[in-house]
Amino acid sequence: MEIIKADTHFDFVRMMKPNLIMSLAVIIIGIASLIWHGGPNYGIDFAGGTLIQIKFQNETHTDKIRAAFKSLGFEDSIIQDYGPKEVIVRTAESGTDAKGLTSRVEEGLSAAFGKGAYEVRRIEIVGPKVGKDLTRKAILAIIFSWIGILIYVGVRFEFRYALGGIIALIHDVLVAITFLSLFNKEFDLNIVAALLTIIGYSINDTIVIFDRIRENVRKNIRQSLVEVINASVNQTLSRTILTVLTVLIVLIVLFIFGGPVIHDLTFTLLVGTITGCYSSIFIASPIVLLFEKIKPSGLKRKK
Questions:
Q1: Could you tell me if residue 251 is inside a domain?
Q2: Residues 6+ apart with CB under 8 A from 193
Q3: Calpha distance 213→223 (Å, rounded)
Q4: In angstroms, rounded to a whole number, what is the distance separating the alpha carbons of residues 123 and 74?
Q5: What is the CATH number of the domain that holds 27?
Q6: Are 113 and 138 found together in one domain?
Q7: Beta-bridge partner residues of 86
Q8: What is the C-alpha separation between 286 and 178, in angstroms, rounded?
Q9: pTM
Q10: Among 222, 270, 225, 217, residue whose Cα is nearest residue 247
């Protein structure tokens, strides 16, 4: 099945500069957003503290919930709607055991709303040391994935291909973080899993294009690298679009019907899937061309 014929002649290389400028602008906006928000909106996994999920029998105003927790000594609690009549309460306190905290919360809620008017569905406590350790490990996981892919692509292809692939992956992660910051999404372990998934998806798409470029470089030695890259991207374009569409259909369904538990996860995957497709075409391959201009390969090609 082909959505687009393999003999199309879209000039992707010509769009290299405006797309690189657009990507840079998006990343700068993301940096500005992070500064504006005072850094990422870390979830309990990284920030430490206590998370309490409560479902009420009736609609309950946020201010009343906040007042109930304030009476328990939870100052500056953050309360977020989590679904119909359901809320998530976050607090910086992390020194109490879960069983003792559950009793304390239930006593306060019973006094404020009455017994049977609520259900404490879960309580999670993460200490500050654990949060810092998880943050460090999450950052290392992403960095080591980049390094591993850099080595793999460098061995399978050439260093210029590895460089293009890694720059595209860094671009994908930064754009995803940009949208997470712009929409003030919570940054937790689920998001780290989504970012690692994006890295795997994006490099797979990029390697398909790189493989076709390598084949065409050997077959068409008289062609310039610009022509080879354009031809290769056009030849794989139908496959790229079909792949991204099938993934997007699943993610859109999950985003709409999956519920609040996986909402941020699927949001990140949606952004990353689109960005990964874009970077494979407009970032990775042009970087190969730029590196060829800086340090030409041994093959003599037409200017």
A1: yes
A2: 265
A3: 12
A4: 14
A5: 1.20.1640.10
A6: no
A7: 55, 83
A8: 23
A9: 0.83
A10: 270
Q: Tell me: the pLDDT tens digits for 39-67? A: 888 887 787 788 888 889 888 888 888 88
In whole angstroms, what is the distance from residue 237 CA to residue 92 CA? 49
Task: For residue 143, give both structure tokens.
Answer: 């960095």
Looking at 91, 110, 126, which one is the last position of a domain?
A: 126
Q: For residues 133 and 121, what is the distance between their CA atoms, to the nearest angstrom?
A: 27
Instruction: Identify the DSSP state of 8.
Output: -
CA atoms of 278 and 5, how far apart (whole Å): 19
- Report the C-alpha gap between 134 and 143 in whole angstroms: 14
H helical segments located in 61-127:
62-71, 98-113
Q: Is the pLDDT of residue 303 over 50?
A: no
Angle subtended by helix axes 263-279 and 189-219, to nearest 10: 20
Domain enclosing residue 254, as ranges: 13-42+130-294
Cα distance between residue 143 and residue 209, in whole Å: 23
